[in-house]
Amino acid sequence: MISVVQFGGSNCDRDAVAALDHLGVDAERVWHGDGLPADTDGVVIPGGFSYGDYLRAGAMAARTPIMAEVREAADEGVPVLGVCNGAQIGCESGLTAGAFTTNRSARFQCEHVHLRVERADTPWTAAYDEGQVIEVPIAHGEGRFEIREDRLATLEDENRVLFRYCDADGDATDAANPNGSTANVAGILGARETVAVMMPHPERATLPDVGGTDGQGVLRAFAE
């Protein structure tokens, strides 16, 4: 069973469950105060505005007891995916490197963007080809990925960048970077390849009648 962790202010938990159910993956919403169920086979930390984004996005949720359980599960190889606010929580809790800060525009942005698949040999990208361009939506005010140059070099050296913002032709240009993320990074892996965070919403590009299906491949990792 995939546990979709719900915090006060989460608003994409139902979307994630619906998308996973559509793919035949058993998923349930789990209130953070109840802890991870014993039968958890995977974890989704969904989007939204946990704790109203007070202090900074994801900072308070990252310090809840359930995130200690999520980190322990991740260390044991349980797949963990953080999306949007879940990506912010993932970085804040140490699941992955870097941080997400205010968009370059200083505005909330809700639009479809193109992503280039940087690797096709991870659980999260096995359904795609390396270099493939997919289209998924974003919806965030603090989606700009920031990381020190030396740590970015480590991510690059260890091939832990999953997705980059790009144009329809696959070029990772500044114009195609919707929020000013460092090196156009849209999604990365943690120390384990079973842990990933991404700012765009694959669950909103999974149901055929709502937003296309380009995001299905990310969620299929849980089925595999």
TrEMBL record:
Its main location: cytoplasm. Pathway: Purine metabolism; IMP biosynthesis via de novo pathway; 5-amino-1-(5-phospho-D-ribosyl)imidazole from N(2)-formyl-N(1)-(5-phospho-D-ribosyl)glycinamide: step 1/2. One of its GO terms (biological process) is 'de novo' IMP biosynthetic process. It holds the Pfam family GATase_5. GO terms for molecular function: ATP binding; glutaminase activity; phosphoribosylformylglycinamidine synthase activity. It catalyses: N(2)-formyl-N(1)-(5-phospho-beta-D-ribosyl)glycinamide + L-glutamine + ATP + H2O = 2-formamido-N(1)-(5-O-phospho-beta-D-ribosyl)acetamidine + L-glutamate + ADP + phosphate + H(+); L-glutamine + H2O = L-glutamate + NH4(+). It is found in: Cytoplasm. Its EC number is 6.3.5.3, 3.5.1.2. The keyword Ligase applies. GO terms for cellular component: cytoplasm. The active site is at C84, H201, E203. Part of the FGAM synthase complex composed of 1 PurL, 1 PurQ and 2 PurS subunits. Part of the phosphoribosylformylglycinamidine synthase complex involved in the purines biosynthetic pathway. Catalyzes the ATP-dependent conversion of formylglycinamide ribonucleotide (FGAR) and glutamine to yield formylglycinamidine ribonucleotide (FGAM) and glutamate. The FGAM synthase complex is composed of three subunits. PurQ produces an ammonia molecule by converting glutamine to glutamate. PurL transfers the ammonia molecule to FGAR to form FGAM in an ATP-dependent manner. This is Phosphoribosylformylglycinamidine synthase subunit PurQ. The lineage of its organism: Archaea, Methanobacteriati, Methanobacteriota, Stenosarchaea group, Halobacteria.
